[in-house]
Design a protein that fits this description.
The structure holds 2 protein chains of 2 kinds. In chain A, helix 1 packs antiparallel against helix 2. Chain A starts with 10 loop residues before the first helix and ends in a 19-residue tail after the last helix. Chain A has 2 domains: about 60 residues, Arc Repressor Mutant, subunit A (Orthogonal Bundle), CATH 1.10.10; about 100 residues, Glutaredoxin. Chain A has a 5-stranded mixed β-sheet, covered by helices on one side. By secondary structure, chain A is an alpha+beta fold. In chain A, a hairpin with a 5-residue loop joins strand 2 and strand 3. By secondary structure, chain B is an alpha/beta fold. Chain B folds into 3 domains: about 210 residues, 3-Layer(aba) Sandwich (Rossmann fold), CATH 3.40.50.11540; about 80 residues, Roll (Ubiquitin-like (UB roll)), CATH 3.10.20; about 90 residues, de novo design (two linked rop proteins), CATH 1.20.1440. Chain B contains 17 helices and 9 strands. In chain B, helix 7 links the parallel strand 2 and strand 3. In chain B, helix 2 packs across helix 9 and helix 5 packs across helix 6. Classes of the chains: A alpha+beta, B alpha/beta. At the A-B interface, helix 2, helix 4 and helix 5 of A face strand 3, strand 5, strand 9 and helix 13 of B.
């Protein structure tokens, strides 16, 4: 992560963005991959970053902002270093997603969706169906799906990221206590969860 | 590959999932080692004329598994193979219909089956390049598909001369960025072109003017994954499965209040009782199925009394619902239908692209009405409003089906559970769930 006052994109990212249009039958298709690169560097899309993307792609800044505001995976406000995206659509709601949401909010200290924790480490967003309904309740944490969520599993994930659990042994011991531990090794057999 | 919750193993009614569960099936050497693995592509390129391939798919009776259920072979034949200039195959891997996880199941278990299907389709319709539009949240499926394509490239299956045939084939990936509307094919094309994903008016249809203004075949992941089997075994063999008008098998992702949620391959024509009560284990002990969504949240609900409805598209149409995306959401008798409908309307209101007025306004209007009802501020006015908004959303008043889907949620839950709505709106009570604060946004 760059320091918070850093808004402009670095030269190598802009160079990368300028190479994108050639990869598509028409250059405009590069706008979302370019915004991805900008968001990857800054955490969220600032107006300055969107303008720089527009300039690099020879598009109107308003056009680029129009695209960025349409899609929910583009963040226009600051987000945490780690981002909880908890599904609350019907399949997950029927299996306890609302309790998971309450627990996440309390655990990281935010009051509502799209808020960032005071230490900047976590943010939380309520999202629509993530397409893993047989593992409900589930969520995406950064770039990974986590299945069969329980309060204990959430606590472990948060503690790991806070650095409270320092060693692998501590993590394993905690996970052993919580039978529905986080999905670390997706292949490992898991007990079927009784309905929430 | 995560653990398998759903169909796997070689059984007569397993066409897509027969090798699922084989270790490392996602790797090309393992997939190729299975009977038929990449044999269909070889056969299509070396032994069949493009029109023969399309005819075989037509003979199979395969219908699109994305939601609309259009005849796949007929769709292929709409592309004029001899038209000069580039043509494209675009694969809809933007799975986001609530309650649907079957394309993820396919991508994570057998990406090469999809790659093979894409390449066959491209050759059949005269395209040299295919684009897979995959939803942005699918990091793992994206990684696995990317690796599969690179393996196929290393083997030459993707490249200038697949199996020695002078017909270049290429597959590219494009990631979505979180917009349900992109499941609608023309919205997906807009997005692929780097625009806000708002549906186009048709005609022209994508077969004439699709991606980047060129003739384009759009198919769903499951549809194309079925093609290698059809080429290997013949369209007639596929047509023997299922019903006359809905042949074959389809994946149904069963979720919600069942003991064994999972993605099950079902021969069309089986009943929902079989799918929900047997394959998915039925509801938890002491509870009963109250209602189910037979084809994703957009498919009108069916009450428990209709569990014997058959899974083929004609039977579902007769029951005033649809097969949709194959996502079966089961809700038991401990849950309130008004709250469930409210949650889904929040979804449709959030995902409306804003292009057509009934959908842009109607979704939010319905959500506000549900909020008043759930806050015990309802009256006959709210009930009438819901019905009116529902009617306004339906019947082709919008460019795409999102508005209709929102209307169907209201309409079908009102139709089958009017008494529960009346309890909430007029008597200000819920006989099903303990009172709680209206769901937060």
């Amino acid at each position: 992560m760059k320091s918070p006052d850093k808004t402009a994109l670095s030269a190598h990212v802009l160079d990368e963005i300028k190479e994108l249009p050639a990869k598509y039958p028409q250059p405009r298709s590069a706008v979302m991959p370019a915004l991805d690169l900008a968001q990857e560097e800054l955490g969220h899309l600032t107006p300055a970053a969107m303008s720089e993307v527009a300039a690099a792609l020879q598009l109107d800044p308003g056009y680029v902002e129009g695209v960025a505001t349409f899609y929910s995976l583009f963040h226009l406000e600051p987000v945490g270093k780690h981002r909880f995206y908890v599904c609350t659509n019907l399949s997950c709601a029927l299996r306890g997603a609302n309790e998971i949401v309450d627990h996440v909010k309390k655990a990281i200290g935010v009051g509502r969706s799209d808020q960032v924790s005071a230490d900047g480490l976590f943010s939380f967003e309520e999202v629509e169906c993530l397409g893993a309904c047989e593992f409900a309740p589930m969520m995406r944490l950064d770039h990974r799906y986590h299945y069969d969520l329980t309060s204990e599993a959430i606590d472990t994930l948060i503690a790991e990221r806070r650095g409270v659990l320092h060693t692998r042994g501590e993590v394993a011991a905690k996970a052993a206590k919580a039978p529905e531990g986080p999905v670390k090794k997706p292949r490992a057999p898991r007990k079927k969860k009784a309905d929430a | 590959m995560p653990d398998l919750r759903g169909s796997h193993g070689d059984q007569p009614d397993h066409i897509l999932t027969r090798w699922f569960g084989t270790p490392d099936l996602h790797r090309l050497d393992v997939y190729s080692g299975k009977p038929g693995g990449y044999a269909a592509l070889r056969k299509a390129l070396l032994d069949m004329a493009p029109a023969e391939i399309t005819n075989e798919v037509k003979a199979s009776g395969l219908r699109g598994r994305g939601g609309a259920g259009f005849a796949t072979g007929t769709k292929w034949s709409f592309i004029n193979r001899d038209a000069p200039g580039p043509k494209y195959v675009v694969v809809n891997a933007d799975e986001s219909e609530p309650g649907t996880s079957k394309d993820r199941y396919l991508l994570e278990n057998s990406p090469h089956m999809l790659v093979e299907g894409i390449l066959i389709a491209a050759y059949a319709v005269g395209a040299n390049q295919a684009w897979v539009y995959i939803r942005g949240e699918y990091d793992e499926p994206h990684r696995m598909l990317h690796e599969a394509i690179e393996e196929a490239r290393a083997k030459g299956y993707v490249g200038p001369k697949p199996f020695g045939k002078d017909y270049p084939l290429d597959i590219r990936l494009y990631r979505g960025h979180g917009a349900y509307i992109c499941g609608e094919e023309t919205a997906l094309l807009e997005s692929l072109e780097g625009k806000r994903a708002q549906p186009r008016s048709r005609p022209p249809f994508p077969a004439v003017k699709g991606a980047w203004g060129r003739p384009t075949l759009l198919n769903n992941v499951e549809t194309l994954s079925t093609v290698p089997w059809i080429i290997n075994n013949g369209g007639a063999a596929y047509a023997k499965l299922g019903t006359e008008k809905s042949p074959g098998t389809r994946l149904m992702s069963v979720s919600g209040n069942v003991l064994k949620p999972g993605v099950y391959e079902v021969e069309l024509g089986q009943t929902f009782r079989h799918v929900i009560m047997e394959l998915a284990g039925g509801p938890p002990e002491g509870r009963k199925v109250k209602v189910f969504w037979p084809g994703g949240s957009s498919a009108p609900v069916l009450p428990e009394s209709m569990l014997d409805t058959h899974t083929d598209m004609e039977a579902l149409a007769a029951a005033k619902s649809m097969g949709g995306s194959g996502g079966v959401i089961v809700m038991d008798d401990q849950h309130c239908i008004v709250r469930a409908a409210h949650r889904l309307l929040r979804f449709y209101a959030h995902e409306s692209c804003g292009k057509c007025t009934p959908c842009r306004i109607g979704g939010d209007w319905a959500v506000r009405t549900y909020e008043r009802i759930l806050a015990n501020e309802g009256s006959q006015v709210e009930l009438d409003t819901l019905q009116r908004v529902s009617d306004g959303l339906q019947n082709g008043r919008c460019l795409c089906g999102l508005g209709d889907s929102a209307g169907w949620v209201i309409d079908s839950t009102l139709r089958h559970f009017r008494e529960e709505y009346v309890d909430h709106a007029l008597r200000h009570e819920c006989k099903v769930e303990a009172p709680q604060e209206a769901a937060s946004a």
